[in-house]
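User: Please predict the structure of the protein below. I'd like the answer in structure-token form so I can feed it into my own downstream comparison script.

Assistant: Understood. Taking the following sequence of 533 residues as input:
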Amino acid sequence: MPNTLVETPTNLFPIPGSPEEIIAFKRLQEKMPILFDKVANNRLAEHTSVIVPSMTLHTEELLKLKGASFYEERLLYLLMLLRRPRTRLVFITSQRIHPSVIDYYLHLLTGVPAGHARRRLVLIETSDGSNTPLTQKLLDRPILMERIRRAIGDRENAHLVCFNTTPIERTLAVQLGIPLYGLDPDLLYLGTKSGCRQIFREAGIPMPAGRENLTTQDDIAAALMDLWEERPQMRKAVVKLNDGFSGEGNAIFRFEPLKKLQSAPRDVLKAAISACLEKTLEYVAPTETWQNFAAKFLIMGGICEEFVEGEVKQSPSVQCRVNAIGEPQVISTHDQLLGGLSGQVYLGCTFPANPSYRAKIQDYGEKIASILASKGVIGRFAVDFVLVQKEDDWDYYAIEINLRKGGTTHPFLMMKFLTDGGYDPATGLFVTSSGRPKYYLASDNLSSPHYRGITPDELIDIAVYNNLHFHSATERGVVFHLIGAMSQFGKVGVTCIGNSPEDAQDLYQSILKVLDEELKERKWQDRLNYSAI
């Protein structure tokens, strides 16, 4: 009988991926509903959340993301959980977070002194800045894993939170001995581009014409040929990796160069399409090549679908969750801000989505959430759409389901924590505890060469000096994230919370103007005599 245990300094654990590990994981997950019910209904419940913001995605896809190593900081909004006086957080990162960044978030807390919260926060880092996912870094360090176990304390009142879940997050949960509040890795297929199309079909939701579960160059060529035959007026199609991230795993195929061959025999047309894949496929990621793309397609699989065209297009998304007791919920809607040469790269979002289509995508979100809940999914996820305006209405196309936290997760939850408000499904608005509706514009991608070299302290000083820092009294202002990425990559994220869509947009334009004035025009030199600088 094969040995199914792996030894650590003080424990024996099932071999990763073994049937024994899967059984152990499912036993841990049985505790999650009880723990959720206890914590949700008692703000004084003693509880520990272990935060591992590992972006466990394909390494080559992450390399396309500028400042990817600092995206772990996006989950710092969870420090707001320290408002509960008996909640402890064990927050783990690859590299040390600048102390001023931690202070920045703790001082946004309402209802609890920052010092009280700080005593209940344990920060742990691996001191490893490599591209290896954070979860794997932890599993590779048995001594550090033991430190984390000791920091957790009572494992019966603790759970694990990750950015996304894969089999290695399952291994982490088992070796820490706590349940994971997130997707069971056995259900990962549901969040792939191929899996999404199957869910949309089951829910009866419109989507672009396409083909899924493709793996080879021959599969792609055959799918494109079939789509063109099905829709002879199609001008473009999108070829997508199943696990592409933020639009960077997509490529555009153009049919116009093959127009003369449209009526050719199928074998001739298929060969021509296959040759064009190698020579003329247009990648969203500027550094991509066919050889590399095809190799990843063999591993990940993917889809081909019609590129949705129209003079007036919108790209909204609906955010949902299935809580730990299996209840599906719609929690917000957004309009996405997309960019890049093909307009497929996620840059940011505005809340709420346009009222002319908000209710419809919310209805679609409820259907999808119910189906996913019935399949055992728990956790937060988002559904992306493309809409084309047709007279006074819209044509709707569901595009993908992101079964993980994403770019729309942290701004919404940050606003919720800061204002003690909630989403009203009837109106589509967010209303604070004081009864005021709030709106925001958020982006992960404020980026400029002249931002490089700015430290967290200097960025925070610029915001405070220019009266853009979030004010709890007015519930208005700018909240930064990805602060650590600014010095090295010249990149930072913002959530601009205002009293109207226009107010949020004004705050966003103000922070752009201030950063340009302070950094490009070196206005900060006027204040160098001030000792705090």
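That's the full token string. Residues 5-183 form one domain.
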